Amino acid sequence: MLTTNGVKLHTEVLFYLLLGTFRPGLVCDIGSMDGLHARRFRSILPDSRIVAFEANPRNASLIRENPDVARRKIEVRQAAAWNEDGYVTFHIESAPERDRAEAWRRGTSSTRSRLAGSLGDSEIRVESVRLDTFMRRQEPPPAGAGLWIDVEGAAFEVLEGLAGARELVQAVHVEVETRAVWQRQKLKPEVERLMVDLGFDVLGRGFVESQHDLVFIGRRLHETYPRTVNAIILFARLLTYLSRFEANTVRKELIERSLRGVLAAGLLAPALPISG
User: Fold this and answer.
1) What's the rounded Cα separation, in Å, for the pair 255 and 251?
2) Does domain 11-265 have CATH number 3.40.50.1110?
3) Backbone angles phi and psi of 109, in degrees to 5
4) Which DSSP symbol is given to 155?
5) pTM (2 decimals)?
6) Could you tell me the CA-to-CA distances from 171 to 56, 60, 85, 103, 257 in Å, in that order?
7) pLDDT per position as a tens digit, 21-51
8) 54 close to 76: Cβ distance less than 8 angstroms
9) Could you give the count of Cα atoms lying within 13 Å of 5 in the half-sphere of its Cβ?
10) What are the backbone dihedrals phi and psi of residue 201, each rounded to the nearest 5 degrees, phi first?
11) What are the extents of the domains in the chain?
12) How many CA atoms lie within 13 A of 1 on its CB side?
């Protein structure tokens, strides 16, 4: 089986390829901010349930007000994915609305306080929900799930909350840090150990050392379709390599056209499973 732990590649491409190949019935965009990734998931999975989780009330309202979100039938849940059902303290990071240079701060609110670089925050209580609770309540249960997690220092707790439905989860894209940015946060090694214990294999990672994304696949799925998973990884690495030689706008178009072509043609459709 191809070993990819530590290999740097375009993690977004890798995750999209996993979604388009294994076609989970549910995809959750957790820490959605603006619903952008949820809308992209809909382009890949026209028939799946897409849910955007956003705990920041202002961000959640803006997502709901976006007509493209309604047109694409994306559900918006104003809640924090967490390791307990109930309520949790949420820190709303100050983000000057008219200063484009500070627009990134819209996506930095968290269940954690920043250690440095904050313009100030305010605390509110928001609904919290475990992902296994959420998935188990679906009728009928989803035929597989994909999770995109960008929760500003709270990845460990969010992932703890899927333990009771781990067998439903096919692929996870999650942002991690190698040094603390938020108070009392768990770092990358702890997240990786948790995912291994939950039954997931890491397929690839992003480029920036201090903060990057990891892509995981359910170990059972990986062991059942090893040739398909290897092909997905190799294609993602090829696209990552080719995109280095293009300008940003051309790179984006290249990736999107390549993804659409491969997924539409079914070139990475799961091969026959390996029997025991």
Assistant:
1) 6
2) no
3) -65, 150
4) H
5) 0.90
6) 25, 24, 23, 29, 22
7) 999 999 999 999 999 999 999 999 999 999 9
8) yes
9) 10
10) -110, 140
11) 11-265
12) 16
